[in-house]
Design brief:
single chain, 246 residues, alpha/beta, Glycerol-3-phosphate (1)-acyltransferase, 8-stranded mixed sheet, 8 strands, globular
């Protein structure tokens, strides 16, 4: 497997590039609701479990994590992609290769070691990118195995909902749910998977309902993670006859 080789200098540069160019260029706004560092997780490693429905998910998680203080953040990434974009290792990405039993075992133990050291890890337990509206969520066994190896870990479910609503650029929102601090070592693997699937699935449906109930407008409880830029339709509004002179 490919381990993370964090570089603080590169991280600082790339965070600015991601925030000021990549995300601002491609998104109208990004919002977050909930606590990514809940009090119940104090002193524990945190495993962030996210649904996975777009290429942008990792960069959105990285941006949100960069707003936090304290522990360092790591990101599990498919090995083929990490070999293609090796610089992500400097940001805390490390590989998982489900096609190799040895590599898979190494990645799970590596993750557990990070969590035991009090670090924070982001992973996509479905194991692949799937359409945003697919149901039910079906999680691979990896997260359950990691929790058995690192039973003091707190799990924070994070759901991502995005789409083209009222602007020419998409909007994205992240919702951090209540932390799960359970006796992972005493639980059967299938029970752990069921608990995680239920928590993430219910939260994603609630997240979807919040957006739908606001008819595509950003709900007030979502605080901006990124300064809003003007999308094409807003620029056209400004340039309409009579508007620009006001």
């Amino acid at each position: 497997m490919l381990e993370a080789v964090k570089s603080a200098r590169f991280d600082r540069w790339f965070y600015r590039y991601n925030s000021l160019y990549l995300l601002r260029r491609h998104f109208h706004c990004i919002g977050i609701c909930g606590d990514l560092q809940p009090a119940a997780a104090a002193g524990r490693g945190i495993l962030y479990l996210m649904n996975h429905s777009s290429w942008w998910d990792g960069l959105l998680a990285y941006h949100a994590a960069g707003k936090l203080s304290g522990s360092r953040h790591y990101y599990m990434m498919e090995e083929e992609q990490l070999r293609k974009y090796g610089f992500f290792r400097k940001l805390g990405a490390y590989s998982i290769n489900s096609g190799s039993t040895g590599d898979l075992r190494a990645s799970l133990h590596y993750t557990a070691g990070l969590l035991q050291a009090g670090e924070s890890v982001w992973m996509y337990p479905e194991g692949e990118i799937l359409p945003l509206e697919h149901r039910p969520l079906s999680l691979k066994a990896g997260a359950a195995l990691i929790l058995r190896l690192s039973p003091l870990t707190a799990v924070v479910p994070v759901t991502l909902y995005h789409g083209l609503f009222r602007h020419t650029k998409p909007e994205a929102t992240l919702l951090a749910g209540a932390p799960l601090v359970l006796p992972w070592a005493e639980m059967d693997r299938s029970d752990t998977i069921r608990v995680l699937e239920t928590a993430l699935g219910i939260q994603l449906d609630d997240h979807r309902s919040r957006i739908f109930n606001h008819k595509g407008h950003m709900p007030e409880e979502f605080k901006p993670l990124l300064k809003r830029g003007r999308s094409t339709n807003e620029w056209l509004d400004v340039l309409r006859p009579g508007r620009g002179r006001r």
